[in-house]
Design brief:
about 210 residues, 8-stranded mixed sheet
């Protein structure tokens, strides 16, 4: 097992407004299990520390994770990442969104094996960068503070100021042939589609 799998934090960003869904996406059930439960269960097999970034603590207390509200409210996903990195006990953290039900342990393990010497290790698919399926070091904290001060809110705005390792699609496809790791449930249409497919997904094992 890669040494970083033990000495890292798993960050789950759950601070969005859920405007398109109309409900808290973290607790939507896929195959009978809330998305965030699927993520927490997987993260427990990978990371020494799990941190949930959410401005309402109560719904998340059941997961026995560390829960922090945004240090910089209104700063979007970049602000959530900043909060997670600030509170993390470790140099490296792996960050995901709370609405990603089909994360794959082999994909995450592959990515974590590529972090050494970099501040960001991130997949780039046909849809572009996947900033909420990526690893970040604490070296990102200072640059994030600076770009937030410039009112920038996109995680990719950080990349020119840190050392980035980009994983290409051809590296991920042998591990996740359908690229399901990067699926987000953003809307009711997304939810209906993935429920209708009725495909069995094991977030801990299946590629």
């Amino acid at each position: 097992m890669n040494q970083y799998l033990q000495a890292m934090s798993g960050l789950i960003l759950s601070g969005g407004k859920n405007l398109r869904m109309g409900q808290n996406k973290a607790f939507i059930q896929i195959e009978g299990i809330p998305i965030i439960q699927r993520i927490v269960d997987l993260f427990r097999t990978l990371f020494e520390e799990i941190i949930i970034i959410a401005n309402e603590r109560e719904p998340y207390l059941q997961f026995k994770a560390k829960i922090y509200g945004d240090l910089l409210p209104g700063a979007g996903a970049l602000g959530g990442l900043y909060t997670g990195l600030f509170h993390s006990s470790f140099f490296y953290s792996f960050a995901v969104a709370c609405d990603m039900p089909f994360l794959k342990r082999p994909v995450i393990e592959y990515l974590l094996g590529k972090v050494e010497g970099y501040d960001v290790t991130i997949p780039r698919t046909e849809d572009g960068y996947q900033p909420l399926h990526a690893a970040y070091s604490k070296n990102c904290i200072g640059p994030i503070e600076r770009i937030l001060g410039e009112r920038k809110r996109k995680i990719v705005d950080l990349f020119p100021f840190v050392h980035v390792n980009v994983l290409q699609t051809n590296e991920i496809l042998p591990i996740d042939s359908k690229m399901e790791s990067f699926i987000n449930i953003n809307s009711l249409a997304d939810l209906s589609r993935y429920r209708a497919e009725a495909v069995s997904h094991d977030p801990k094992v299946n590629p």
